[in-house]
Amino acid sequence: MIALTFRRLAPMIGALAIAALILHFAPPRAIGPPWMLILLGALAIVWVLWQPPTMVRDDFLPALAVVLATLGLAMVARLSPALAQRQQLWILVSLALAIAVAPVFSQFRRFAAYKYLWVVASLALFALLLVLGEEVNGARLWIRLGPIQYEPIELIKLFIVLFLAAYLAETADVIAKARPWSLRANVKYLGPLFIGWGASMAILVVQRDLGMATLLLATFATLLFVATRRIDIVLFGALLFALGAFWAVHHYPYVQTRIAVWRNPFADPFGGGYQSSQAYYSLAAGGLVGSGYRLGHPEFIPDVATDYVYAAFSEEFGLIGALIVLAIFLDVVRRMFVTGLEQPDLYTKLLAAGLGATLGFQVVIIVAGVIGLLPLTGITLPFMSYGGSSLVANFLLVALVWAMSARPRRSSP
Q: Cα(80)–Cα(257) distance, rounded to whole angstroms?
C-alpha cells in the first residue's frame, strides 16, 4: 500500500517541486502568502490521492496540469501582481472543484444517459449571455455576478463534447453505414446531431465569438470522423461553417478588423495593429534562449496576460522555452487519446478523443494566432492565460479524463 501511494504521489511531488522552483523567482509579494502556496500544494496532493484504492490512473495528467498552471501563474505574476493574486485564488477554486467532483467523475459513463440535458444546459447558458452578457472587444462573452466575472463558453465547450460523445456512441454504426445520397437515413440520424451542434454554432456566430466557434467545429469534425469515418459529413459541416464565417466577416466590423490586422499588422502600428505588432517584437526579442525571466518587456503588449501570455513567455524563455511548453501540451493531449484507446466501450473512447481534441485545438488556435499563422481570436491558452473561467474548465477537463483513465490494479505476486 505504501508503494502504491508513493507511485501515485511521485508525479505530483515532482510537479510541486518544479512549481516551488519556478515561483521562487517570481517578483516579491506577487505570489503568496506562504500559507496559500502550502494550501495549494496540499490540495494538489489530496486531488491525486482521492481515487479508488483498487484502481490505477494516469497520474501524470494532473501533475502536468499543475506544471502548466504554475508556468502561467509565474508569467502573470511577472506581468501584474494584482492579477496573480486573483489567479492563485482561481487555481485554489479549480483544485477544490476537482476534488469535490471526483466521486461524480468516477461514474462518468452515467453522463451518457443525460445527453440532451447537456444541449439544454448549453442553450440556457447562451440565453443568459444574451440577457446578462457584457460585450468585450466586440464579442459578448462575459456574465458578471457581483465581483465575479465568468465566461460560460468555457463550460459550454465541455457540455457539447459530452453530448456529441453520447449521441455518436449510440448512432455511429448506422451513420457510418448510411449511404451519402440517402436523404432519409442521414436526416433521421444526423438531424439531432446538427440541431444540437448547429444551434450552438449559430449562437456563437451571433455572439461574434468565432474563436470558440472554430474550436467547436474542429472538435465536432474530429469526433464525427473518429466515430463514423465519413469524410463527406465532415466536409459538409466545414462548408456550413465556412458560409457562416463568410457572412460574419462581411457583417461584423470586429471580425473584419481582426482579419485586417492579421494580414498586415504594421499597416496601422499605433492603432488596430498595435497589439499584434508589439507581440511580434516580443517574439523576435526572445530569440533562441530568451531574455531571461523578468528581464524582457512584454508589458508593452496590451492585454498580454489574457491574449498574449505565450508571446510574453517566448520573449523571456526563447524559442526553446516555447517549444517545451508545446511539448507539455502535446504530452497531455497524447495521454488523453491513449486513455480513450485503452477503454473497451465506444462512449469512453469518443469522450476522451473529444476532450483531448478540445484541449489540443484550443492550444493550436491561440498559439497560431499569436505567431501570425491565423487571425487572433478571443480564446485563452489553457492553464497559462489569466482567467478563472478557463482555469476551472480546463482543470475539470483534466480531472474527467484522469478519472476515465482508471483501470483495475494488478495484484502483487
A: 28
